[in-house]
Amino acid sequence: MMIFGTLMMAGLVVLVVLLVRSLAPGAGAQGLGADPMASARQILADRFARGELSATEYHERVDQLR
Q1: Is the Cβ–Cβ distance between 44 and 53 less than 8 Å?
Q2: Domain residues of the chain, as ranges?
């Protein structure tokens, strides 16, 4: 009976950890299989959209990623 209780607690802990990780900000974008170049391009695109980079700067930096 004690083993069953221990397994239930371990299962509950695993579920809570998975839930917290899935709800954390940016969890989907930075997963283990995420492409770092795609993430870098997205950051550049966001900065360009906010006006932090000029068109020339944006294109130069994207070209550097290739």
Answers
A1: yes
A2: 35-66
Supply the pTM of this predicted model.
0.49
The answer, yes or no, to whether residue 35 has pLDDT greater than 70, is yes
Distances from the Cα of 1 to the Cα of 8, 13, 15, 21, 45, angstroms: 11, 19, 21, 31, 56
Tokens of 36: 């770092």
Taking alpha carbons only, the member of 32, 30, 62 closest to residue 47 is: 62
Q: Is the Cβ–Cβ distance between 58 and 44 less than 8 Å?
A: yes
What's the pLDDT score for residue 33? 60
H helices of the chain, in order, are 2-23, 36-49, 55-65
| Structural contact between residues 61 and 47, judged by C-beta atoms closer than 8 angstroms | no
Pick the more confident residue, 61 or 1: 61
